[in-house]
Amino acid sequence: MLSRSAQGLYWMGRYLERAGQLCRLLQLQVEALVDRPISEIHFGWRRIYAVLDRGPPFGADFEVDESDDFALADSYTLAGDLTFERSNAESIRGCFALGRENARQMRHCISGEMWTCLNLAWLRIRDLEIEDIWKISPENFYARTTREIDTFAGVADTTMYRDEGWRFMQLGRFMERTQLLVALLLAQLATGRTLVDGSDSGWTSLLRACQAFDAYKRSYSVDVRPGNVLDLLVADPRLPGSLHRSLEILAWELAAIGSSPDSAAGAAAERLAGRLGALIRYEWPDRQDREELLSQVREHSLKLHDLVNTAYFDYNLEAAPVR
Q: Staple 50 to which of 180, 187, 252, 304, CB 3.0 to 4.6 Å?
């Protein structure tokens, strides 16, 4: 497969996965505006911006004001920045636009049904602004957009030919899922220390954002404990969105793709993917400093992305084998 095609499919998978996760976080956040304390509302915004490693548009931090009017005004501005802001490439609109553009350029690699599904979703949101959804029901917009992204993933699963293009799209999806989940867990641990009242709502919303609340109840009952939440989201291989599962699929897809133009970088990527999986399978259960382990996973996952880029997309032409 041409490196340009592989790169386009990889980034299409990444951008749409990012948009879906941001939709779920924002849906929970705007639902919390109805009846949650002001401190929890600000905690939710801090967590989202920490995941994106980005500051809010009006300053470097959040001032906790006990006035509902100020909280709603801040939330309106922050939701607009994260949903429709043209200058923010990591907004939902920005991710959708970049994902669609990669799909448009790679239409010869994806099915017609995939393109139709993605294009219809894009046409619905491309001209919207935050005031268009805020005055009616913003949570319905985020829920619908999440469903459309999930539908696209389902259509891809049932219609896309299982060649290298499929594997690079999957590689992008699960690379993004791995990095976003680790960033979300680290943000939860860091910003959760600000909730001095001992509330568990941050952990409950974390489970809902990861679509794991029902699985948690089946495994641990309704008593939400941070240690149990971490074990489920990180190390449970039965949870489709767990870190264990994402790393397993990453290693599988890299092995299935096989040889790369830069064989050294390709082999290093496979080894690093295996090492990441081993960290979760063998070290997670016994580690006390779990935040430090998650930081290691984050650093290794960023390095893994760089190795994939070097091995398959931006490799040295002189070192590439003659075919």
A: 187
